[in-house]
Each structure stands twice: as structure tokens, then as C-alpha cells.
Design goal:
Layout (H helix, E strand, L loop, with lengths): L1 H17 L2 E7 L5 E5 L2 E9 L2 E9 L7 E4 L3 E8 L11 E10 L2 E9 L4 E7 L4 E7 L1 H5 L1 H7 L5 E6 L8 E2 L9 H10 L4
Antiparallel strand pairs: 1-2, 1-4, 3-4, 3-6, 5-6, 5-10, 7-8, 8-12, 9-10, 9-11
Length: about 190
């Protein structure tokens, strides 16, 4: 009987260690270490001009989303995975191109990355700007949430699928960076940052 109890205890100790998920744990200002995690690893990146911030950590799979939006000067991405040390992957171009705006000119082409499988166009009457770029399905599925969350901005957003489907045109509105607070709010609502 004592041998069986010892066997069960040893099995539990070694088996639980084998089921532990290893993830990188760090941010822009700290060196990455490896951490034991229960369900998922996450990697969140924010490129805003020349400023790049990131967070790599353990995540609860119930609150983990794969989302990405790229507007040229601004790129925000949240990726989740469930294999050892998977939150250190680089995101590469996927073959899709969308139009993006550079100042008042929306005829520039942007190469989409990773899970960005839609083109997005967003305009805001109060913000007096138009932004275009690439977005993941998760962002596009929540466009209604974004539009309804900020009714005072009179935000109008739409997504489409296919190369350069978000039509090129020259715009007279202001700079792209005015939409950063709205995009950050969307990521906050989705639980990404």
C-alpha cells in the first residue's frame, strides 16, 4: 500500500511538471525570462512610428485573442499560442495588400502580416480623418462594437476581403495618428492591452 501511495505521488509530481507550458515573460524594458504557465502564452506588440513596445507573458486562454491591425505608421498585434516558448515568433507578410493613408494621400500600398486577412477603412467626422490598412478577422468582427462604443466620434468603419479592396483615393482630412486613441480603446475592450 505504501508503495502505491509513493508511486501516485511521484507520478503526480513528474506528470504535472510535464504538462506545464513554458512561455517567455518580459516587456519592452525587461529582459525575457521563461515562466511556467497554465494555459496560453501571449505576445502583444504596438508599433507607433519609431516607438515599439511589447509584452510577452502567460495568458488565460479565455481572455486570449489573436488580433492585429496595421495602418502603416501604426501597427498593433496580440497573438496567443499554446506550445512551449511560442510567444517569441516573428510575424511575416502574408501576400495580401491594402491601401493605407500617408498624410492626405491614401494611394499607398501596405503589405499585410500574419493573420491580417481583411482591409479596413475608418473615418471619423469629429476626428476629421480617414485611415486605411490591414486588419485581422477579429478586429473586423468587432467593427460594430467599435462604431457603437464611440458614437460621439461619428465613427464609420468597414472591412473587406481581397487585395486592395479598400479603394485608393486622395483625402483632405488630417493625419492618421488621430485614430490611435480609438484603436487603443478597441484593443482595451477586446482585452488585448
Amino acid at each position: 500500500m505504501a508503495l502505491q501511495i509513493i508511486s501516485v505521488v511521484l507520478f503526480t509530481v513528474f506528470f504535472s511538471e510535464a504538462l506545464t507550458l513554458m512561455c517567455y515573460n518580459c516587456n519592452t524594458t525587461t529582459e525575457c525570462t521563461q515562466a511556467n504557465c497554465s494555459s496560453s502564452c501571449s505576445s502583444m506588440t504596438n508599433h507607433n512610428g519609431n516607438n515599439i513596445t511589447f509584452v510577452k507573458k502567460c495568458a488565460d486562454s479565455a481572455w486570449c485573442f489573436n488580433s492585429s491591425i496595421n495602418l502603416g505608421l501604426i501597427w498593433m498585434s496580440s497573438q496567443c499560442c499554446s506550445s512551449n516558448l511560442c510567444n517569441n515568433a516573428t510575424v511575416s507578410e502574408n501576400g495580401l495588400s491594402c491601401y493605407t493613408c500617408n498624410d492626405k494621400d491614401c494611394t499607398n500600398r501596405l503589405k499585410c502580416k500574419g493573420g491580417e486577412d481583411h482591409c479596413i477603412t475608418a473615418t471619423g467626422e469629429s476626428l476629421q480623418n480617414t485611415v486605411k490598412g490591414c486588419a485581422s478577422k477579429n478586429i473586423c468582427d468587432n467593427i460594430t462594437l467599435l462604431n457603437n462604443t464611440l458614437p460621439q466620434q461619428h465613427l464609420s468603419s468597414s472591412c473587406c476581403r481581397g487585395n486592395l479592396c479598400n479603394n485608393a483615393q486622395k483625402m483632405t482630412q488630417g493625419p492618421v495618428l488621430l485614430l490611435v486613441p480609438i484603436l487603443s480603446l478597441l484593443f482595451y475592450i477586446l482585452g488585448l492591452f
